Protein backbone atom coordinates (compact mmCIF):
# COMPACT_ATOMS: atom_id res chain seq x y z
CA UNK A 1 0.00 0.00 0.00
CA UNK A 2 1.07 3.59 -0.54
CA UNK A 3 2.99 5.51 2.10
CA UNK A 4 0.77 7.42 4.52
CA UNK A 5 0.64 11.18 4.02
CA UNK A 6 0.63 13.55 6.99
CA UNK A 7 -3.00 14.47 7.64
CA UNK A 8 -2.05 17.83 9.15
CA UNK A 9 0.01 18.80 6.10
CA UNK A 10 -2.95 18.23 3.79
CA UNK A 11 -5.53 19.90 6.02
CA UNK A 12 -3.36 23.00 6.39
CA UNK A 13 -3.56 23.78 2.67
CA UNK A 14 -6.41 25.48 0.83
CA UNK A 15 -9.62 23.53 0.23
CA UNK A 16 -8.95 20.41 -1.86
CA UNK A 17 -10.17 20.60 -5.45
CA UNK A 18 -12.83 18.24 -6.77
CA UNK A 19 -12.04 16.72 -10.16
CA UNK A 20 -15.78 16.44 -10.98
CA UNK A 21 -19.06 17.30 -9.30
CA UNK A 22 -21.12 14.43 -7.86
CA UNK A 23 -24.69 13.53 -8.89
CA UNK A 24 -27.37 16.00 -7.78
CA UNK A 25 -30.76 15.27 -6.20
CA UNK A 26 -33.64 17.58 -5.26
CA UNK A 27 -35.37 17.34 -1.88
CA UNK A 28 -38.69 19.15 -1.31
CA UNK A 29 -39.91 19.47 2.28
CA UNK A 30 -43.61 19.60 3.12
CA UNK A 31 -43.73 20.51 6.83
CA UNK A 32 -47.29 19.59 7.86
CA UNK A 33 -48.86 16.48 9.40
CA UNK A 34 -52.36 15.65 10.57
CA UNK A 35 -50.85 14.85 13.97
CA UNK A 36 -47.34 15.10 15.43
CA UNK A 37 -46.09 11.65 16.45
CA UNK A 38 -44.43 11.42 19.90
CA UNK A 39 -41.21 9.90 18.48
CA UNK A 40 -40.78 12.33 15.56
CA UNK A 41 -37.97 14.90 15.57
CA UNK A 42 -38.44 15.97 11.93
CA UNK A 43 -39.53 19.50 11.06
CA UNK A 44 -43.28 18.79 11.02
CA UNK A 45 -46.20 20.81 12.31
CA UNK A 46 -49.65 19.56 13.26
CA UNK A 47 -52.66 20.88 11.31
CA UNK A 48 -55.46 18.52 12.36
CA UNK A 49 -57.62 16.22 10.28
CA UNK A 50 -59.43 18.88 8.27
CA UNK A 51 -56.16 20.41 7.13
CA UNK A 52 -57.80 23.81 6.94
CA UNK A 53 -54.61 25.57 8.07
CA UNK A 54 -52.51 24.15 5.20
CA UNK A 55 -51.61 27.15 2.99
CA UNK A 56 -51.16 24.99 -0.10
CA UNK A 57 -51.18 27.60 -2.87
CA UNK A 58 -48.95 29.97 -0.95
CA UNK A 59 -46.47 27.23 -0.04
CA UNK A 60 -46.21 25.82 -3.57
CA UNK A 61 -45.54 29.35 -4.85
CA UNK A 62 -42.82 29.72 -2.21
CA UNK A 63 -41.22 26.40 -3.22
CA UNK A 64 -41.09 27.48 -6.85
CA UNK A 65 -39.56 30.83 -5.88
CA UNK A 66 -37.08 29.04 -3.60
CA UNK A 67 -35.98 26.81 -6.50
CA UNK A 68 -35.64 29.80 -8.84
CA UNK A 69 -33.40 31.59 -6.32
CA UNK A 70 -31.20 28.52 -5.88
CA UNK A 71 -30.60 27.94 -9.60
CA UNK A 72 -27.28 29.85 -9.82
CA UNK A 73 -25.72 27.35 -7.37
CA UNK A 74 -26.61 24.30 -9.48
CA UNK A 75 -26.92 25.76 -12.96
CA UNK A 76 -26.84 23.19 -15.76
CA UNK A 77 -26.36 20.17 -13.49
CA UNK A 78 -28.66 17.21 -14.29
CA UNK A 79 -30.97 16.08 -11.47
CA UNK A 80 -31.11 12.31 -10.92
CA UNK A 81 -33.91 12.10 -8.32
CA UNK A 82 -36.60 14.13 -6.59
CA UNK A 83 -37.98 13.36 -3.12
CA UNK A 84 -41.05 14.99 -1.57
CA UNK A 85 -40.64 14.39 2.16
CA UNK A 86 -42.13 15.70 5.34
CA UNK A 87 -44.25 15.93 7.28
CA UNK A 88 -46.88 14.30 5.14
CA UNK A 89 -46.57 15.36 1.49
CA UNK A 90 -49.64 13.29 0.58
CA UNK A 91 -51.71 15.99 2.31
CA UNK A 92 -51.09 18.12 -0.79
CA UNK A 93 -53.63 17.93 -3.59
CA UNK A 94 -52.64 16.18 -6.81
CA UNK A 95 -53.05 19.54 -8.55
CA UNK A 96 -50.45 21.12 -6.26
CA UNK A 97 -47.98 18.27 -6.85
CA UNK A 98 -48.57 18.54 -10.60
CA UNK A 99 -47.90 22.30 -10.56
CA UNK A 100 -44.76 21.83 -8.49
CA UNK A 101 -43.29 19.07 -10.66
CA UNK A 102 -44.15 21.00 -13.83
CA UNK A 103 -41.99 23.88 -12.60
CA UNK A 104 -39.23 21.49 -11.52
CA UNK A 105 -39.09 20.15 -15.09
CA UNK A 106 -39.13 23.67 -16.52
CA UNK A 107 -36.31 24.93 -14.29
CA UNK A 108 -34.04 21.88 -14.01
CA UNK A 109 -32.54 19.37 -16.47
CA UNK A 110 -34.38 16.45 -14.85
CA UNK A 111 -33.14 13.11 -16.18
CA UNK A 112 -35.76 11.19 -18.16
CA UNK A 113 -35.42 8.18 -15.86
CA UNK A 114 -35.34 10.27 -12.66
CA UNK A 115 -36.80 8.63 -9.56
CA UNK A 116 -39.56 10.88 -8.13
CA UNK A 117 -40.70 9.82 -4.67
CA UNK A 118 -43.63 11.00 -2.55
CA UNK A 119 -43.94 10.15 1.14
CA UNK A 120 -47.46 9.21 2.22
CA UNK A 121 -49.16 8.09 5.41
CA UNK A 122 -52.15 5.73 5.68
CA UNK A 123 -55.15 7.82 6.63
CA UNK A 124 -54.43 10.21 3.74
CA UNK A 125 -55.07 7.62 1.01
CA UNK A 126 -57.80 8.11 -1.57
CA UNK A 127 -57.67 5.93 -4.68
CA UNK A 128 -58.29 8.71 -7.22
CA UNK A 129 -55.87 11.08 -5.51
CA UNK A 130 -53.02 8.58 -5.77
CA UNK A 131 -53.85 7.79 -9.39
CA UNK A 132 -53.57 11.53 -10.00
CA UNK A 133 -50.22 11.67 -8.14
CA UNK A 134 -48.94 9.05 -10.58
CA UNK A 135 -50.28 11.02 -13.54
CA UNK A 136 -48.48 14.13 -12.21
CA UNK A 137 -45.14 12.31 -12.44
CA UNK A 138 -44.66 10.58 -9.07
CA UNK A 139 -43.14 7.16 -9.86
CA UNK A 140 -42.21 5.93 -6.37
CA UNK A 141 -44.28 5.93 -3.19
CA UNK A 142 -42.93 5.62 0.36
CA UNK A 143 -45.60 4.70 2.90
CA UNK A 144 -45.17 5.29 6.64
CA UNK A 145 -46.75 2.09 7.96
CA UNK A 146 -44.49 1.76 11.08
CA UNK A 147 -46.45 -1.29 12.33
CA UNK A 148 -49.44 -3.48 11.49
CA UNK A 149 -50.24 -3.98 15.17
CA UNK A 150 -53.15 -1.77 16.40
CA UNK A 151 -51.68 -1.57 19.91
CA UNK A 152 -48.32 -0.38 18.65
CA UNK A 153 -49.87 2.06 16.19
CA UNK A 154 -51.76 3.62 19.08
CA UNK A 155 -48.62 3.76 21.23
CA UNK A 156 -46.78 5.51 18.37
CA UNK A 157 -49.54 8.09 18.02
CA UNK A 158 -50.33 7.10 14.43
CA UNK A 159 -53.62 8.28 12.91
CA UNK A 160 -54.25 4.98 11.08
CA UNK A 161 -55.14 1.47 12.16
CA UNK A 162 -54.08 -1.90 10.72
CA UNK A 163 -56.98 -2.02 8.25
CA UNK A 164 -56.03 1.39 6.85
CA UNK A 165 -52.41 0.24 6.57
CA UNK A 166 -53.41 -2.74 4.39
CA UNK A 167 -55.80 -0.57 2.37
CA UNK A 168 -53.04 1.99 1.71
CA UNK A 169 -50.71 -0.72 0.41
CA UNK A 170 -53.46 -2.04 -1.86
CA UNK A 171 -54.10 1.40 -3.39
CA UNK A 172 -50.36 2.05 -3.71
CA UNK A 173 -49.63 -1.18 -5.60
CA UNK A 174 -52.52 -0.55 -7.99
CA UNK A 175 -50.95 2.76 -9.04
CA UNK A 176 -47.18 2.35 -8.55
CA UNK A 177 -44.64 -0.33 -9.43
CA UNK A 178 -42.09 1.11 -7.01
CA UNK A 179 -43.35 1.20 -3.41
CA UNK A 180 -41.46 1.38 -0.11
CA UNK A 181 -42.86 0.53 3.32
CA UNK A 182 -41.38 2.20 6.39
CA UNK A 183 -41.50 -0.03 9.47
CA UNK A 184 -40.14 0.44 12.99
CA UNK A 185 -39.04 -2.13 15.54
CA UNK A 186 -38.05 -2.11 19.23
CA UNK A 187 -41.40 -0.42 19.84
CA UNK A 188 -42.88 0.14 23.32
CA UNK A 189 -43.45 -3.29 24.93
CA UNK A 190 -42.96 -5.05 21.58
CA UNK A 191 -42.11 -8.76 21.65
CA UNK A 192 -39.90 -10.60 19.17
CA UNK A 193 -42.98 -12.43 17.86
CA UNK A 194 -44.81 -9.15 17.25
CA UNK A 195 -41.83 -7.69 15.38
CA UNK A 196 -41.63 -10.91 13.35
CA UNK A 197 -45.33 -10.65 12.45
CA UNK A 198 -44.86 -7.04 11.25
CA UNK A 199 -41.95 -7.80 8.95
CA UNK A 200 -43.63 -10.96 7.59
CA UNK A 201 -46.73 -8.95 6.63
CA UNK A 202 -44.54 -6.34 4.94
CA UNK A 203 -42.72 -8.98 2.89
CA UNK A 204 -45.95 -10.77 1.98
CA UNK A 205 -47.49 -7.52 0.71
CA UNK A 206 -45.34 -7.72 -2.42
CA UNK A 207 -43.73 -4.27 -2.23
CA UNK A 208 -40.24 -4.16 -3.76
CA UNK A 209 -38.62 -2.07 -0.98
CA UNK A 210 -38.80 -2.14 2.82
CA UNK A 211 -37.11 0.17 5.34
CA UNK A 212 -36.94 -1.07 8.93
CA UNK A 213 -35.77 1.41 11.55
CA UNK A 214 -34.93 0.92 15.21
CA UNK A 215 -37.10 3.26 17.30
CA UNK A 216 -34.82 5.84 18.90
CA UNK A 217 -35.84 8.33 21.58
CA UNK A 218 -34.66 11.57 20.00
CA UNK A 219 -34.25 14.84 21.94
CA UNK A 220 -37.08 17.37 21.50
CA UNK A 221 -39.71 14.62 21.24
CA UNK A 222 -42.47 13.59 23.64
CA UNK A 223 -40.95 10.11 23.95
CA UNK A 224 -37.65 11.65 25.05
CA UNK A 225 -39.36 13.65 27.81
CA UNK A 226 -41.61 10.77 28.85
CA UNK A 227 -39.75 7.59 27.81
CA UNK A 228 -41.90 4.53 27.16
CA UNK A 229 -40.83 1.03 28.13
CA UNK A 230 -38.91 -0.30 25.12
CA UNK A 231 -37.04 -3.58 24.47
CA UNK A 232 -33.51 -3.75 25.87
CA UNK A 233 -30.45 -3.79 23.62
CA UNK A 234 -30.24 -7.59 23.50
CA UNK A 235 -33.86 -8.00 22.42
CA UNK A 236 -33.54 -5.16 19.90
CA UNK A 237 -30.47 -6.88 18.44
CA UNK A 238 -32.47 -10.14 18.16
CA UNK A 239 -35.19 -8.23 16.33
CA UNK A 240 -32.67 -6.74 13.91
CA UNK A 241 -31.17 -10.16 13.14
CA UNK A 242 -34.63 -11.68 12.71
CA UNK A 243 -35.65 -8.89 10.30
CA UNK A 244 -32.50 -9.37 8.21
CA UNK A 245 -33.05 -13.12 7.99
CA UNK A 246 -36.76 -12.76 7.16
CA UNK A 247 -36.37 -10.25 4.35
CA UNK A 248 -33.48 -12.25 2.91
CA UNK A 249 -35.69 -15.36 2.75
CA UNK A 250 -38.22 -13.31 0.76
CA UNK A 251 -35.59 -12.22 -1.80
CA UNK A 252 -34.76 -8.74 -0.50
CA UNK A 253 -31.12 -7.61 -0.39
CA UNK A 254 -29.95 -5.69 2.70
CA UNK A 255 -28.05 -3.00 0.79
CA UNK A 256 -27.96 -0.42 3.62
CA UNK A 257 -28.25 -0.87 7.38
CA UNK A 258 -32.02 -0.22 7.44
CA UNK A 259 -32.92 -0.69 3.75
CA UNK A 260 -33.97 -3.87 1.91
CA UNK A 261 -34.77 -4.09 -1.80
CA UNK A 262 -35.70 -6.51 -4.52
CA UNK A 263 -33.24 -6.43 -7.49
CA UNK A 264 -33.14 -3.00 -9.21
CA UNK A 265 -35.39 -1.36 -6.61
CA UNK A 266 -32.81 0.32 -4.36
CA UNK A 267 -33.72 3.90 -3.48
CA UNK A 268 -31.65 5.97 -5.91
CA UNK A 269 -32.32 9.16 -3.96
CA UNK A 270 -31.10 7.71 -0.66
CA UNK A 271 -28.15 6.01 -2.34
CA UNK A 272 -27.03 9.43 -3.50
CA UNK A 273 -27.03 10.63 0.13
CA UNK A 274 -25.07 7.59 1.31
CA UNK A 275 -22.55 7.96 -1.51
CA UNK A 276 -21.91 11.59 -0.49
CA UNK A 277 -23.65 13.02 -3.52
CA UNK A 278 -25.14 16.51 -3.68
CA UNK A 279 -28.70 17.53 -2.90
CA UNK A 280 -30.56 20.82 -3.07
CA UNK A 281 -33.21 21.05 -0.35
CA UNK A 282 -36.08 23.51 -0.74
CA UNK A 283 -38.93 24.16 1.67
CA UNK A 284 -39.16 24.98 5.37
CA UNK A 285 -36.21 23.53 7.28
CA UNK A 286 -34.76 21.73 4.24
CA UNK A 287 -31.03 20.98 4.21
CA UNK A 288 -28.68 21.13 1.20
CA UNK A 289 -25.20 19.88 0.38
CA UNK A 290 -23.78 21.47 -2.75
CA UNK A 291 -20.30 20.95 -4.19
CA UNK A 292 -18.25 23.38 -6.22
CA UNK A 293 -14.78 22.82 -7.62
CA UNK A 294 -13.00 24.34 -4.62
CA UNK A 295 -15.59 24.05 -1.83
CA UNK A 296 -18.53 22.06 -0.47
CA UNK A 297 -21.28 23.92 1.38
CA UNK A 298 -24.19 22.97 3.60
CA UNK A 299 -27.31 25.11 3.94
CA UNK A 300 -30.49 25.08 6.01
CA UNK A 301 -33.73 26.91 5.17
CA UNK A 302 -35.78 28.65 7.87
CA UNK A 303 -37.64 25.95 9.83
CA UNK A 304 -40.88 27.59 10.87
CA UNK A 305 -43.29 27.52 7.90
CA UNK A 306 -44.65 31.01 8.65
CA UNK A 307 -41.15 32.47 8.85
CA UNK A 308 -40.07 30.62 5.70
CA UNK A 309 -43.09 31.92 3.79
CA UNK A 310 -42.56 35.46 5.10
CA UNK A 311 -38.90 35.41 4.06
CA UNK A 312 -39.42 34.04 0.59
CA UNK A 313 -42.60 35.82 -0.45
CA UNK A 314 -41.65 39.27 0.87
CA UNK A 315 -41.50 42.13 -1.60
CA UNK A 316 -38.36 43.42 0.12
CA UNK A 317 -35.48 41.87 -1.82
CA UNK A 318 -33.13 42.42 1.12
CA UNK A 319 -35.20 40.00 3.23
CA UNK A 320 -36.10 37.48 0.55
CA UNK A 321 -33.42 34.84 1.19
CA UNK A 322 -34.91 31.58 2.59
CA UNK A 323 -31.47 30.30 3.70
CA UNK A 324 -31.09 30.68 7.46
CA UNK A 325 -27.59 29.26 7.76
CA UNK A 326 -24.74 28.25 5.46
CA UNK A 327 -21.26 26.94 6.11
CA UNK A 328 -18.43 25.39 4.18
CA UNK A 329 -17.47 21.80 5.01
CA UNK A 330 -13.84 22.07 6.03
CA UNK A 331 -11.27 19.65 4.66
CA UNK A 332 -10.89 17.88 8.02
CA UNK A 333 -14.66 17.24 8.15
CA UNK A 334 -15.12 15.95 4.61
CA UNK A 335 -13.56 12.54 5.11
CA UNK A 336 -15.51 11.80 8.30
CA UNK A 337 -18.81 12.88 6.73
CA UNK A 338 -18.07 10.71 3.70
CA UNK A 339 -17.28 7.67 5.87
CA UNK A 340 -20.32 8.29 8.10
CA UNK A 341 -22.54 7.86 5.03
CA UNK A 342 -20.66 5.35 2.88
CA UNK A 343 -20.07 2.82 5.66
CA UNK A 344 -23.85 2.42 6.07
CA UNK A 345 -23.82 0.60 2.73
CA UNK A 346 -23.33 -3.16 2.74
CA UNK A 347 -21.18 -2.87 -0.39
CA UNK A 348 -19.15 0.00 1.06
CA UNK A 349 -17.45 2.24 -1.48
CA UNK A 350 -14.88 2.19 -4.25
CA UNK A 351 -11.51 3.45 -3.05
CA UNK A 352 -11.26 6.17 -5.69
CA UNK A 353 -14.71 7.59 -4.81
CA UNK A 354 -13.34 9.07 -1.57
CA UNK A 355 -11.08 11.44 -3.50
CA UNK A 356 -13.73 12.05 -6.17
CA UNK A 357 -16.30 13.16 -3.55
CA UNK A 358 -14.05 14.91 -1.01
CA UNK A 359 -10.88 15.88 -2.87
CA UNK A 360 -8.89 13.97 -0.25
CA UNK A 361 -6.68 10.98 -1.19
CA UNK A 362 -7.31 7.65 0.49
CA UNK A 363 -3.81 7.80 1.99
CA UNK A 364 -4.99 10.51 4.43
CA UNK A 365 -6.86 7.83 6.39
CA UNK A 366 -4.53 4.89 5.83
CA UNK A 367 -3.75 4.61 9.55
CA UNK A 368 -7.45 4.57 10.45
CA UNK A 369 -8.25 2.03 7.75
CA UNK A 370 -5.52 -0.27 9.02
CA UNK A 371 -6.89 -0.01 12.57
CA UNK A 372 -10.43 -0.76 11.38
CA UNK A 373 -9.17 -3.72 9.36
CA UNK A 374 -7.18 -5.10 12.29
CA UNK A 375 -10.34 -4.92 14.44
CA UNK A 376 -12.29 -6.81 11.74
CA UNK A 377 -14.64 -3.85 11.20
CA UNK A 378 -13.85 -3.46 7.49
CA UNK A 379 -12.50 -5.51 4.62
CA UNK A 380 -10.17 -3.59 2.33
CA UNK A 381 -8.63 -4.36 -1.03
CA UNK A 382 -7.19 -2.10 -3.72
CA UNK A 383 -10.61 -1.30 -5.21
CA UNK A 384 -13.27 -1.39 -2.48
CA UNK A 385 -13.68 -0.82 1.26
CA UNK A 386 -16.62 -2.59 2.89
CA UNK A 387 -17.91 -2.86 6.46
CA UNK A 388 -17.79 -6.42 7.75
CA UNK A 389 -20.82 -7.90 9.49
CA UNK A 390 -19.15 -6.90 12.77
CA UNK A 391 -18.56 -3.39 11.42
CA UNK A 392 -22.23 -3.06 10.52
CA UNK A 393 -23.32 -4.33 13.93
CA UNK A 394 -20.97 -1.89 15.67
CA UNK A 395 -21.09 1.01 13.24
CA UNK A 396 -20.59 3.64 15.93
CA UNK A 397 -17.34 1.97 17.01
CA UNK A 398 -16.21 1.88 13.38
CA UNK A 399 -17.02 5.55 12.82
CA UNK A 400 -15.25 6.50 16.05
CA UNK A 401 -11.99 5.47 14.38
CA UNK A 402 -12.51 7.96 11.57
CA UNK A 403 -13.63 10.68 13.94
CA UNK A 404 -9.93 11.00 14.73
CA UNK A 405 -9.52 12.63 11.30
CA UNK A 406 -11.51 15.59 12.60
CA UNK A 407 -9.64 15.76 15.87
What is this entry, summarized?
This protein has 407 residues and is α/β, with parallel strands linked by helices. Helix content is 40%, strand content 22%. The longest helix is centred in the first third of the chain and has 19 residues, at 56-74.
Question: What labels would you give this structure?
Answer:
globular, 407 residues, alpha/beta, 22% strand, single chain, disordered N terminus
Report the span from N to C terminus: 24 Å
The mean pLDDT is 91
Which class best fits the helix and strand makeup? alpha/beta
Could you give the count of β-strands?
A: 17
Strand content: 15-25%
Instruction: Order the strands across the largest sheet as they lie in space.
Output: 9-10-8-7-6-5-4-1-11
- The general outline is globular
Rg calc: 22 Å
Low-confidence stretches: 1-13
Number of alpha- plus pi-helical segments: 16
Biggest sheet descriptor: 9 strands, mixed
Bin the helical content.
Answer: 25-40%
Task: Annotate the secondary structure layout.
Elements: H1 7-11, E1 24-30, E2 32-33, E3 45-46, H2 56-74, E4 79-86, H3 94-107, E5 110-120, H4 127-136, E6 140-146, H5 150-155, H6 162-175, E7 178-185, H7 192-204, E8 209-214, H8 222-225, H9 233-249, E9 253-256, E10 259-261, H10 268-274, E11 278-282, E12 287-291, E13 296-301, H11 305-313, E14 323-328, H12 331-342, E15 349-350, H13 351-358, H14 366-374, E16 378-380, E17 384-387, H15 389-393, H16 395-403
Amino acid sequence: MATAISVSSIFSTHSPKLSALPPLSLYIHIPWCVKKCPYCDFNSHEIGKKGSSLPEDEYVSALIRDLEMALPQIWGRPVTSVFLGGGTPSLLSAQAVDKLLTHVRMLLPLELSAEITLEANPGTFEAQKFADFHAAGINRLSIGIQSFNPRHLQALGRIHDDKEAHHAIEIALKNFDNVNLDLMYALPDQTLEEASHDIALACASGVPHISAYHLTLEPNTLFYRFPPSVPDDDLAAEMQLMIEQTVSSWGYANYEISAFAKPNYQSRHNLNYWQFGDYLGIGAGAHSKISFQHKIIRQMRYKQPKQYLAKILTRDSALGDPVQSEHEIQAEDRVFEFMMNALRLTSGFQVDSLQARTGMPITTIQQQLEEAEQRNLISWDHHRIMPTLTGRRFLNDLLQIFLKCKE
